[in-house]
Amino acid sequence: ASDMFVTLADRTNAFNTLYEAMLSALPVVALNTGSTSDFVEDGRTGVLRSMDALPDLPRVMLGLLSDEARARSLGDAARARMDETFPTIEERQAMEVEVVERAVREHAG
């Protein structure tokens, strides 16, 4: 139960907890480090800030907490982004089966 997801790693913020937050339709506030911007689009699926903008983050977070409509819009867009990007469980299982079957075929050959 959260109102937003905040991640401030200085190398990258693109990791499982970010994906889970976006799939849960939480608005994201993140530092724009590493490959984070591959997933979080500033102003559309979350809020990205540079390392030198750290002092601004409390204002950003309070702004999201006080603007439910904006927070919901960012969270919904985050969920849609993940739905477009990530395979379904069934698709993922099919890919994994294909990898194992290919490995068996190549090893047997």
Summarize the structure in words.
It is built from four helices and three strands. By secondary structure, it is mainly α. Strands 1-2-3 form a three-stranded parallel β-sheet, with helices on both faces. The longest helix has 20 residues, at 89-108.
Q: Which features does this protein show?
A:
single chain, 109 residues, mainly alpha, three-stranded parallel beta sheet, 4 helices, elongated
Mean pLDDT: 94
Specify the structural class.
mainly alpha
Percent helix, as a range, is 40-55%
Q: What is the quaternary state of this protein?
A: single chain
β-strand percent reads 5-15%
**Radius of gyration over all CA atoms, rounded:** 17 Å
Shape: elongated
Summarize the structure.
This protein is mainly alpha-helical and 109 residues long. It has helices at residues 16-23, 57-66, 68-85, 89-108, and strands at residues 5-7, 28-31, 46-49.
Topology summary:
Elements (H helix, E strand, L loop, with lengths): L4 E3 L8 H8 L4 E4 L14 E4 L7 H10 L1 H18 L3 H20 L1
Parallel strand pairs: 1-2, 2-3
